[in-house]
Design a protein that fits this description.
heterodimer, A: alpha/beta, Rossmann fold, five-stranded mixed beta barrel, 9 strands, 32% helix, globular, B: 486 residues, alpha/beta, six-stranded parallel sheet
């Protein structure tokens, strides 16, 4: 191959007929479709302006502000892809609505974890960052705004991102806990890494769906469903507070 | 004569959560007894509503020292046949302290099985055969005499020198408007709660029978098999009289939500029109839920909007199966397309749709059950009530299903446990597939959010949905691990 890189983010956006300015500067991203639908229902005049590979983004208005909502990725590789695309499209603020497993006994199903930083257990960010010790951070100001409007109990700290949900063994989990992680997910690391590399503001709030310490699984628990609904509502309160 | 209507300690359907409803059979019989035989003293003890355990129940009954205790239910939703072990346990305790007190049971399940159940249950003295409305008050009256003539009381299984005998057939009450309204004033109305969270909850029962007479339906067991297919002889309280009852509940008892437990409320269009007109005119705001049939909703599609305006917020209708062969075999007499259309109409009017469906037919295998579920999932009702085939003696399909029965403990005969195998599946397989389909339905992204939060639905609909989502794990334990909830 003679070219430096096969496809740049903007190449892909253009190939999908998505031009700069189509998306808003604020993006509310999630993996699970139900969260996207709940967010979409809050937008006025939403327009679908990106659709490729099974990922769809809509842009509309919320209390006078333009907001893009959609699927920001389920796992680390697709989250990296979507975050890169969104950065190229001009998104300045990323609010990630996700889910995670708690890694402390006191973190209950249906609680929230606010990610301050990410422990990179994923593979995709090694393509972006050479320094193995790099710890991507959430934007402090945006996270503080989220914490301020989030009047429900939440835990704040480092989130370990893994690629291997079914290989969360005692050894690797305790290693992550030893490095300060309080929860595990499959998305936060690439989101924060790529946003930070592009000098964008990003934060992530995650509903606790299971607990690695107690072994409790609540993937279809009403506590999770209720928490997801409140999370979407609170995210829009943050959007209202963002000064753009 | 001092009679007692007793609701003994018991749970309820797992999907209903903490659900403590008035016993509609007791409320009606108490009203009948009071109106027809005012000289007979009686009282009511609802241990579920009062939170009494068995010891507290016995202490209370001992103090009351009644001559006759009646237990019974009209509704399958209380626990299907799983009510029987509870009644039997209560009667056993009662007989230990009050051996001379007569115990009578009746209503659902017993109506078609009075003689057999009395033979099997020495704790009971009488079982009503068929409809209870007139038989129970007449029994109380007869027992109040110095020399009661029990054989003269029609519709009764009794003992004569140890032998169980059955008195003559009791004909049906033809016009329900002839009956007094249920005696709500005698019951602890402030104690009832629906689906864990709905306070001011009341179940009502304004009609009897269903003209369709599906062959699997447990409603048949309310009736004496000596009658002329009595289950199919549909009788009603008029629309006006229904509104009388709703008005009474709203104005006098502060009721907030009514679930009409009629097996088939919307058979007659003129009754629905009268209900709409009367409820609107009298400004009775009470929201309500009723069970009906999809084809009647299609016939009366123009009534859905006015019904919604007068408080119809959620409706249940049966589908049971999705293939023509099974629907024909069980004589369901509808098509899946009709159910689909009714669901769409409900959506249009922001009325929550609730569809019943079944697994455990003799020919069911895993593919058939999952295909049935896929069809249900595709037509996308808001709520689905899965019923595991429960072949009560007295239903027309009993003879066909009887060879497949593998679980004989009636505590599990509540629609939520597997009690039969099929030609291709073990009881355990049936239970596992029940848990699988229920979890699939109540964890589907999008549906869960719709039923829990959609603002077009009444808040009580959200609370019913919440109960079903919340109990999905417990439902799986009932279906797969035989945990008891009734």
């Amino acid at each position: 191959m003679e070219r430096e890189i096969h496809i740049r983010p903007m190449d892909l956006l253009m190939a999908m007929q998505c031009k700069p300015g189509d998306l808003a500067t604020i993006a509310l991203v999630s993996g699970q479709p139900q969260r996207v639908i709940m967010a979409l229902e809050k937008l006025e005049n939403p327009m679908r302006n990106f659709s490729a590979f099974g990922y769809t983004l809509w842009t509309g208005e919320y209390k006078g502000k333009r907001v893009t909502v959609g699927n920001g990725g389920f796992y680390a590789p697709d989250s990296a892809l979507m975050t890169d695309l969104l950065c190229a499209a001009g998104v300045e603020y990323f609010l990630r609505l996700g889910s995670c497993g708690g890694m402390r006994e006191d973190i209950q199903i249906g609680d929230y974890v606010l990610a301050d930083s990410a422990l990179r257990g994923d593979g995709v960010t090694t393509y972006y960052v050479e320094d193995e010790g790099f710890i991507p951070s959430a934007d402090q100001g945006l996270s503080d705004q989220l914490a301020a409007v989030f009047n429900h109990e939440f835990h704040r700290g480092m989130v370990w991102t893994t690629d291997a949900l079914l290989r969360e063994t005692k050894a690797v989990v305790n290693n992550a806990i030893g490095k300060g992680a309080i929860a595990v997910d499959m998305v936060t690391s690439p989101l924060l890494t790529i946003a930070q590399m592009n000098n964008r503001k990003a934060t992530a709030v995650l509903v606790v769906s299971d607990n690695l310490i107690t072994g409790e699984m609540g993937f279809a628990s009403i506590r999770v469903f209720d928490a997801e609904k409140r999370m979407v509502d609170c995210a829009f309160d943050v959007i209202e507070a963002i000064d753009v | 004569m001092n009679a007692l209507f007793l609701q003994p300690p018991m749970g309820g359907w797992v999907t209903f959560g903490n659900h403590i409803a008035i016993n509609v059979n007791h409320a009606q019989l108490a009203a009948n007894l009071r109106e027809w035989y005012p000289e007979i003293e009686f009282s009511v003890l609802d241990t579920r509503a009062l939170g009494l355990n068995e010891k507290q129940m016995i202490d209370t009954i001992t103090e009351m020292s009644p001559d006759l205790i009646y237990m019974g239910d009209a509704l399958q939703t209380t626990g299907v046949a799983a009510i029987h072990p509870r009644y039997k346990a209560a009667a056993s305790l009662i007989k230990q302290v009050l051996p001379k007190t007569s115990v009578c049971v009746g209503g659902f399940f017993y109506g078609a099985n009075s003689q057999k159940m009395l033979e099997e249950t020495p704790e009971f003295d009488f079982i009503i055969s068929g409809e209870t409305e007139r038989t129970m008050p007449e029994l109380a009256k007869e027992l109040s005499k110095d020399d009661p003539d029990i054989p003269s009381v029609k519709g009764l299984a009794y003992r004569d020198d140890g032998a169980v005998k059955l008195t003559g057939y009791r004909s049906l009450v033809e016009n329900l408007d002839d009956l007094p309204l249920p005696a709500y004033d005698l019951f602890p109305m402030d104690k009832y709660i629906g689906f864990t969270r709905i306070k001011g909850y009341v179940e009502t029962y304004h009609s009897r029978g269903c003209p369709n007479g599906c062959l699997f339906c447990v409603g048949w067991t309310d009736y004496d098999p000596r009658g002329d297919k009595d289950w199919t002889r549909y009788r009603i309280r008029s629309g006006k009289r229904v509104v009388d009852e709703l008005e009474l509940l709203e104005k006098k008892f502060g009721t907030k939500f009514v679930v009409m437990m009629d097996e088939d409320f919307n058979v007659r269009r003129e009754r629905m029109e009268e209900l709409i007109e009367e409820k609107g005119r009298r400004n009775v705001e009470l929201p309500f839920f009723f069970m009906g049939r999809a084809p009647y909703h299609l016939r009366d599609k123009d009534l859905l909007e006015p019904l919604h305006k007068v408080g119809f917020v959620c409706g249940l209708f049966g589908m049971e199966a999705t293939d023509e062969e099974t629907l024909k075999k069980i004589q369901k007499d509808l098509t899946v397309d009709e159910v689909d259309e009714a669901i769409k109409l409900f959506k249009k009017h922001d009325i929550m749709s609730f569809v019943t469906w079944m697994i455990g037919f003799p020919d069911d295998d895993e593919m058939k059950i999952k295909s049935r579920f896929e069809r249900l999932d595709a037509i996308d009702p808001d709520m689905a009530a899965l019923q595991l085939m429960t072949p009560l003696p007295g239903i027309p399909m009993y003879e066909e299903l009887q060879p497949y029965i593998v679980e004989h403990d009636l505590q599990k005969w509540d629609f939520q446990h597997a009690v039969i195998k099929t030609k291709h599946l073990s009881k355990e397989d049936v239970g596992r597939l029940a848990a699988w389909t229920n979890r699939e339905f109540y964890s589907k992204p999008g549906r869960v959010q719709r039923i829990l939060y959609y603002k077009g639905f009444h808040r009580f609909c959200h609370l019913i949905a919440r109960s079903y989502v919340e109990t999905a794990e417990a439902h799986a334990r009932a279906a797969m691990q035989d945990e008891i909830f009734v």
